[in-house]
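Table S5 (text form). Sequence records supplied for joint modeling of the two-component complex.
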Amino acid sequence: MSTLHAGDDRDDGIVNGPDGTLRERLAALSEPRTPPEPIWKAAMASQRAARGSAGRFGRSAGARRPVAARRTVAARRVMAAAAVLVLGGATVAVILPALGKARASARFPRVDSSAEPAFALKRPPSSPASAQVPRQDAGASPAPLDSVRSVARKASIELLSPDVRTAYVKAAAIATDALGEFVENASLTGDGAHARGELTLRLRQERLTAALNQVRELGVVAAESTGGVDVTDRLIDLDATIRNEKQVEAEILDLLNRRAKDAGLKDIVELRNTLGEARKRIETLEAQRDNAARSVRFATVLVIIQHKDEPVPAAPQRSMGQVFSEQITAAWHAGVGELGASLGWCVEVGLSRLPLWIGLGAAGLAGIGVVRRAARWSLLERPPAIG
Amino acid sequence: MPTARSTPSPDDPTLHAEPPRAMALAGDGVSDEALLERFARGDADALGLLAERYEAYLFGLALALLGRRGDLARDAVQDTWVKVIRSASRFRGQAAFKTWIYRILLNRCIDLRAQRGPGGAHDGVDASSPGHAPANDHAHDAVATAVAGLPDRPQVVLILCYHRGLTHAQAAAVLDVPLGTLKSRLNAALSALRERLGPGFERKGLA
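The corresponding structure-token record, covering 594 residues in total, follows.
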């Protein structure tokens, strides 16, 4: 029988023999031993080196965090700031294209043909002379120009249309022969999606606004521009030069008539040549003047027509906010659809392979149980830490 | 982590020195918990007093648990002191200091045994390892070999229960098991030990 020694609660029931040698042998296994060097001092030194502090161990409530912890906190703040920046950038990248689309949709609003367009061509304050310049006969003196400006109008307009050929024909028909309007040049190239039509129309200036509205109705306006060149000074210069040249011509002709009987042949020939050159200059100047006057009477309109796949809708007036909200709504629906598809896939895989998941789970649980049972005897559990 | 130290020579006089003075918790009037609190407030000498009380016992226990490997035992004890140093201010007295420090050491020894793999922590008796009994003590060798051959749990139970620094109740607290459970495990471990030692171990007078 075992003996309980005073002060010792051992009761191991060991039949050790009279002196309890087995007990002594077991105790000798873990006999206290002084290590060669104090280990606790080495631990203190290592902690001092790790903390870098002046001999104070154990942190008080107000102590600073160790350097490594402070660096970790700083790194977390940097990562948080970076995450906010990335999130903000992604949000802007998503919103900006939507805003751009909305802006583009509102860029070329349709114009009521009965209303005055926003960028209507400016008419001269009063231009009876520029609007109704009569046709000049060659050689007749032109009507004196009054003080109003003479401006040659130009416009260009680029259209997109699903039927380029039809639009091309309709554009050419805008020039009305009865009013003296005409198609200065026209070309139609390509076919189908590559079709392209170009026309240069000369239209009476007073009809320019209405004609542009007619052109706009032929397709979707992709680009448009208007302009004018003031040719008043040029016309004045040309008139003055023509008068001067005619004066010279008249003087030479008079000289030739008075000296024809007694002048030598050489002189007569020289006078005839000079007269001819004067006449040539007059003809050239008059042609230039007529051309400038015609450019004032008839505006030049360049129409370019290109193919557009979908038919030209009657685009309703929409604000940028409406377009933006429509795009967000469409994106939301698309995202919800994708989410549903993903969840459906997960459910499909989970249900279709359910016997496999059950078998794997059962095998796993059985394996864990086997390992635990096998280790019950030999496995040494780690008692929980205190404090 | 401290680096491993070489195994001390068997001729090292400190290895066979008398064990240090027994722990006198009541004798010098200052409890372990009071010393720990003093250390937490900055008194490094308090830790020295605690080390004077426990270091030898901890080192001996670590040697037994780690197969007489002096380098591993030193690492385990140093890690224990490091843990005590770091956690001194957080110790709330949920258990006795003795239980706490022994449990830290035990857990560290378990981790080192696990790192070395099955059979690696207990290398059997090595004549050159510290604490080795004199060469003619065959009984000591037999017991040591038999204990080293036991599985982990009964081996630790035996070493801990017969460690001079712990009573059975304190050993049960260190292992975090009821005293009755500890005693039943101890009986099972002793049965397994007797089986290894053989039926003639005690008859032959080797016990």
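Note: The two ends of chain B are 40 Å apart (CA to CA).
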